[in-house]
Amino acid sequence: MEQRISLVTLGVTDVARARAFYEQLGWRGQEVEETVFFQAGGLAVVLWGRDKLAADAGIDDQGADGFGGVTLAQNVRSRAEVDEVITAAVAAGAEVTKPARETFYGGYAGYFTDPDGHVWEIAWNPGFPLAEDGTITVPDFGATG
């Protein structure tokens, strides 16, 4: 697994309120399908409904006592690499919370937790091409605002 992070997704209870907060800090994002994407240097910070994020990761959200409402994501270059990284993570002590499978956005992804319970998504997303150094650029979705 390469030493990098592609996306930091924050599970929020109110996407509009969260977006307003970050925009008050000077961030500018794009909203697509109730998900807000902020380009943050070589990675992206994403705001998504906490309930949707927990369900997507295969996590039972216990509020502050369990799932913390945050996942770390690494985009990879192929479907096969998703499987390779998840296999390596399991070998290192990770627990798979959602096996890799086709996604609603036309990609392929799975989730695991590290030994401390931090949730990682490993994803191949044809809409987010990777540069040679592994960085992503949030595409122009043509969204307003």
Automatic annotation (TrEMBL):
Pfam families listed in its UniProt record: Glyoxalase
Gene3D superfamilies for the chain: 2,3-Dihydroxybiphenyl 1,2-Dioxygenase, domain 1
InterPro entries reported in the protein's UniProt record: Glyas_Bleomycin-R_OHBP_Dase (IPR029068), Glyas_Fos-R_dOase_dom (IPR004360), VOC_core (IPR037523)
Origin: domain of life: Bacteria
Every VOC domain range: 4-125
Protein name: Glyoxalase
